[in-house]
Write a structure and sequence with these properties.
By secondary structure, the protein is an alpha+beta fold. The protein is built from twelve helices and ten strands.
Amino acid sequence: MRRRRVVLMSAAVVASRAWQVPAGVSRPAAVRGTPPDVEPPSEEARYVLGRPGDLDADLRLLGTSRARIVQFVSLAAFLGLAGDLFGVTSTLLSVPALREPARRAGLDTYYPVAGFKRYAEPEFELLYPETWLEDQAVYVARTAARAGTTDAEALLRKRRPGPEPLVAFGPPGGTASENLSVFKSDLAPGFSLQGTLGPPAVAAQTLLDRAIAPPGSGKTAELIDAFATASDTYVFEYTLALTDRTLHNLAVIAQRQGKLLYTLTLLCRDADWPDREATFRAVASSFRVRQ
């Protein structure tokens, strides 16, 4: 009996020693009470990610913190969107669902939306292709006129007789063969497009015969289309044959308050019209004269 007790005690000691964890070795998660399906991080993961608090300690050594990094990233994102870095803002605003809200908010005066930017004055507004640039000679002349001064350089740089446009745009490095411009003229009392000039086709042909290509001018104009978009707006499309080239023109004539007449003209070489038609018609449709 005593011998059996000694054997049992020896077996118990051996079993207890078998479950003892040697020094320096972590006890398995299941033994510590951790759910058996959660494994402790490996030595490789600990080497890469560090221990809890290591990142904050390293950031303090660099003189920064997580909050400061978040602030800098947020500021960089804001400046990137505000400055249209890499065209990100323009691309976002050109998404079909955002185009009209962006235009209603006037954001297209700063960022291109669907390939166009907006030019707005108190009297009128229009869209123009995003790659086109404003004519600086016209800008200088307009600024000088508003300031009540005469700019000699602007006068010297006039390239054609007649009234100076209010604004003009064209492609970079372009010529007089492709551009858009807006003119303003005073009207006589009682003038109206329908009552004074007649229906659109009659008014357009009269304009071509008397002003644009009169007899003896060496020019030949051919009317393609003429129609009215409102009681005070006419649209004319015609070609103008010069001695060295033929131009395709699109003109929008709008009356304002019965006293002023605004004319938007778009032109390009007739051979380029198939590639420009969609863009030019979008610009013409966007022209608005504020009453």
